[in-house]
Amino acid sequence: MEAAAEKDAQTQLAATPELSAALFGTAGVSFHVAAWLKKIFGEHPIPRYEVNPRTTEILYHLSERNRVRDRDICLVIEDLKQKASEYESEAKHLQDFLMESVNFSPANLSNTGSRYLNAFVDSALTLETKNTSLASLMPAVNDLTSDLFRTKSNSEEIKLELGKLEKNLTAALVLEKCLREDLKKAELHLSAEKAKADNRLQNKDFLKAKSEEFRFGIKAVEEQLSARGMDASLSHQSLVALSEKLAELKQQTIPLKKKLESYLDLMPNPSLAQVKIEEAKRELDAIDAELTKKVNMMEL
User: Fold this and answer.
1) Counting beta carbons within 10 angstroms of the beta carbon of residue 33, is it exposed (0 to 12), middle (13 to 18) or buried (19 or more)?
2) Structure pTM?
3) Which of 145, 208, 234, 283 has most Cβ atoms within 10 angstroms of its Cβ?
4) How far apart are CA 297 and CA 177, in angstroms?
């Protein structure tokens, strides 16, 4: 308790250099800092630094912290020495007990026995047991075994997860390869379609120019034909209409011919039939002549 109180008082003193300066004076603080620096550097020269209240205050603070730390380290060292002495005393006591009871000494062991004993001691140190008794070793071994099984279980789970990840990675790589191939095909197809579109665009411009040329040519020819007094009935549309009308008339004559065939067996009146035939011939010749005339005019 006294040591703790002293430590708290020193810490508070170190944390308030103004209070230390008030108690010991500025000269006392500077002397304390100089003595501490000389102790730290020993035979080596102290590095030059700017001496002012601020640096003196910082160095005094560091010296106090260093002193407290050295004191704590000394306490730890003393404690470790005391424990080592206790362990040595306990080991000597056990050795004396073994010699008195069974006349046993580690020096009397064979090479094999020494190896076994060292292995036993190393095992106890590895298992971090309090002593080498079975009551300490068995729980440590059981805990180590449990850790081993737990580690194996975790390893199996990690292997399963790793297998799933490998499958997913393989599937992802295959998918990536397929996507790259599809992308390459799409780029080739797009390039081909772009070339076709450019070609069609050029053809479109060419056809548009030709269409304009033909339109102006047709308009010029129509103007020439109109200037020469061409009959409207000789135009292409009129001839097409006459051709359609002729085809329609031929279709109309088909049932009449069939109806006429039923009267072929009768004895006709030669004079009347001859008249009708002549009229039909004249009508047919007139239609053929008119159609031939218009066709010839179109050709011209």
Assistant:
1) buried
2) 0.31
3) 234
4) 71
pLDDT at 132: 63
Nearest CA to 246 out of 274, 299, 284 is that of 284
- Give the mean model confidence (pLDDT) for residues 240-253: 83
* Contacts with 193 (C-beta within 8 Å, 6 or more apart), sequence order: none
Q: How far apart are CA 289 and CA 189, in angstroms?
A: 60
SS3 201: helix
HSE, CB side, 13 Å, CA atoms: give it for residue 199: 6
Burial 200-217 (b: 16+ CB within 10 A, else e): eeeeeeeeeeeeeeeeee
Specify burial of residue 36 (Cβ count, 10 A radius: 0-12, 13-18, 19+): middle
Cβ-contact 242, 291 below 8 angstroms: yes
Question: What interhelical angle do 53-102 and 2-15 show, nearest 10?
Answer: 160
CA–CA dist 139, 125 (Å, integer): 14
Mean pLDDT of the residues in the chain = 77
Residue with tokens 């990675």: 169
DSSP letter (8 states) at residue 46: P
Please give the Cα distance from 226 to 235 (Å, whole number): 11
Cβ atoms of 14 and 68 closer than 8 Å: yes
